[in-house]
Amino acid sequence: MDPELLLDDDELDELDAFLRSDAIGDDAMDLSMVDGFLTALAVGPTNLPPALWLPEVWRQGVSWTSEKLAERMRSLVLRHANTLLLYLREEPEDFEPLLWEREDEGRQLPVIGEWCSGFVRGMALDEAGWQALLDDEENAGLLDIILLHGTEEGARELESDPTLDDEVEAHAASLGPSVLQLMAWWLPQRKRASTLRREAPKVGRNDDCPCGSGKKFKKCCGAERALH
Fold first, then answer.
1. Most buried among 20, 116, 132, 135, using CB within 10 Å?
2. Which of 109, 217, 215 has the alpha carbon at shortest distance from 169?
3. Residues 114, 146: contact at Cβ < 8 Å?
4. What's the pTM value of the predicted model, to 2 decimals?
C-alpha cells in the first residue's frame, strides 16, 4: 500500500468537516456514507468512472467557494476511492468499513446505517448490473445486512422488530467479510467488462466536468489516472 495514497486522520477529519459544513446540501453524504458508497463501486459489477459517480457525493448541493477547495475535496475523495481499491485487491485481510460509534449504557456500539445507505447509493448507480446478484437465490443473501440497514424497507423492518438492535455488533462484524465475498462474486464480470454501460451521453472532452469542479472534463476527471 502506498502510504502517500492513504488518507491520514487529519485528512479524514478535513473531508468529514467539509461534508458537515454549510457548503453542502442536506442530501450530501457524510464520511461513513462516502466510505460505503465507494466500497460498492470498488466491488460491484461495473468499473464506473469518477465523472459519473463523484457528483453523487455532494448531490449537486455543494457551494464551492473556490476552485482550490473543489480540487482539494475532489482529490481527497478520489484518493480514498483508490485506497479502498488497493486494500481490497492487495490487502483484503486489512479491509474494514469506516463506521461511526455511539455510546449505549457505557458501551461503544457501531452505527452502520450510514455506511449501508452509502453502499446502497453506490448500487443505485448501476441498478441493472446489481440485479443479477439480487436475482441469484443462492448468493443474494450477501446483501441482507446492507439492505436491512441501508434501505427504507429495511428501516421499517428494524422498527417493527426491536430485537434486531441487539444484533448490531454482529451485523457490523459481518460487513467486511460480506464485502470480500461480493468482490469475489463480481470479479469475473469486472474482468470481462471493458466499457461502461450508460444511458446518458458521453461527456465531451471540452464540456464542463460533471463532477462540479468547474473545470473542463479533459482537465478534470477526464485527465485522471484513477484506478477506476
1. 116
2. 109
3. no
4. 0.82
